[in-house]
Write a structure and sequence with these properties.
With 261 residues, the protein is α/β, with parallel strands linked by helices. Helix content is 33%, strand content 18%. The strands form 3 sheets. It has a 5-stranded mixed β-sheet with strand order 2-5-8-7-9, covered by helices on one side. A 3-stranded mixed β-sheet has the order 1-4-3, with helices on one face. A 3-stranded mixed β-sheet has the order 6-11-10. A hairpin with a 4-residue loop joins strand 7 and strand 8.
Length: 261
């Protein structure tokens, strides 16, 4: 049921388990000229050798290696360059991230996952360190309000049995059972059913999903109803750490909006 991994490039074996170590799982998007569009570069300086980028594309791996960034190439089958939300290709890529995260956690390390459609406005490393030290929960996640669901595009996980069990269940539901086409729906449903894991929430404005800040004319019609009303209180761009463009569908639309911010 698990998807195979293969290692290439500038990536050394992890040392003995270290509870303070954080490996960053960042499924990247790169333009034709090799310039990265994901936020991993912003985290490279504070995280140093703890930054490991996972990618489906060997060309991206070579670009990362030339930049001195550790990477791993995953997946043994050919993958499309782009897969829209809700398609079989999207489901396969989403399942991969839980395979990789489980590998990191099983090595005794913490894992920080970042979707490639996230733009950093400020470096969140110190804030995340403070939040994680104050929390006893093994999983800290971005949330979507007013939908009141966990967002699977940005989270911090500790190597705890409850997290590993949840991630295994997500993989099985997506790939073996084919019960879901989206890992976010899957994870939220499993959390409700199992009730065996403690999850802390990141501030919904500091770690903002797209419905917090995007204009209604940019969103699909079905998503407009989830927009936060900003008529009385503008979105606090100066305070936010990141913007997640998750409510947009399609590569061109996402990239255009990301570049606009």
């Amino acid at each position: 049921g698990q998807l195979p991994l293969r290692t290439e490039g500038r990536h050394e074996q992890h040392p003995l388990p270290d509870a303070d170590r954080v490996d960053v799982l960042d499924v990247v998007a790169v333009e034709g000229d090799g310039r990265r569009l994901d936020p991993g570069g912003d985290l490279r300086e504070p995280l140093g050798d703890a930054l490991v980028v996972y990618t489906l594309d060997p060309k991206i791996g070579r670009t990362l290696s030339q930049s001195g960034i550790h990477f791993r190439l995953f997946g043994s089958e050919a993958h499309a360059k782009w897969a829209n939300y809700g398609t079989p290709g999207f489901t396969k890529v989403m399942a991969c991230k839980y395979v990789i995260a489980s590998e990191i956690l099983n090595a005794g390390h913490n894992a920080l996952y970042i979707d490639s459609d996230i733009v950093f406005l400020r470096n969140p490393a110190e804030h995340l360190k403070t939040v994680s030290q104050a929390s006893t929960s093994p999983l800290i996640m971005q949330v979507e309000t007013p939908k009141d669901v966990y967002n699977t595009g940005f989270w911090f996980a500790r190597p705890h049995p409850s997290v590993l069990a949840l991630f295994e269940s997500v993989q099985r539901s997506l790939i073996a059972d084919k019960a879901f086409v989206c890992d976010q729906h899957c994870l939220n449903q499993l959390v409700l059913e199992q009730r065996e894991i403690s999850i802390d929430r990141l501030d919904a404005e500091l770690f903002a999903c797209g419905n917090q800040f995007l204009r209604s004319d940019l969103l699909p019609t079905r998503a407009v109803k989830f927009l936060v009303d900003r008529s009385q209180r503008p979105f606090p761009f100066d305070d936010a750490y990141l913007l997640h463009f998750n409510f947009l569908v399609g590569r061109i639309r996402k990239l255009a909006a990301m570049k606009g911010h």
